[in-house]
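A favour, since you know our structure tokens better than I do. Go ahead and set the record down below.
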Amino acid sequence: MATLMLLAEARATTVTDLHHQRQLTDIHIVPELLLRAEVFVDLSAGKVVGIQPDSTIALHPGDAYDDEDDALTSVVEELGGVIPALEFPDGWPFDDDGGFQREINGHTVEVEYRADDDGEWSIQVTIDGANTAELSCWYDVGAQVWDGREGFDMPGAYPIRTDIAHSQNPIWTLSWWIIRQLYGRPVAE
């Protein structure tokens, strides 16, 4: 059994029945959809001769959340699902502010969590003490709506972003960066 992950662009078609036997068809493009499939791999003499899917899950984590804890939970779950060797400590970072370190494929991976009292937080990943990337969440004050004396937040008041590149899926961008650092370059001497 192996896990296969693909980054794809998907097309979703919706058909709405209107009156008088008319239909409205909309086509939406979903960029950066992460497909994760459990597959059975058939090997012969060390070569892949067949692949049979067992299950497939399509994921498109958002880039904005309704609260900072939902955003943080989503980030930790997705990073842990895409990079199992990262092995986040149980309850991290809710039960254990700070960081942790792992040795993966001959590389030292340091993960640090920082938060402030306003609900803003960041996760910084450093590989071999040199290459660093960060994913952060902040409160978007533009999401506040006032209705008389009461105010409320529009959905997505806590966007996330990464300092690596602009992406509609910052979690995948950070995952891709970590995988590339760990498996796409030689181990530091």
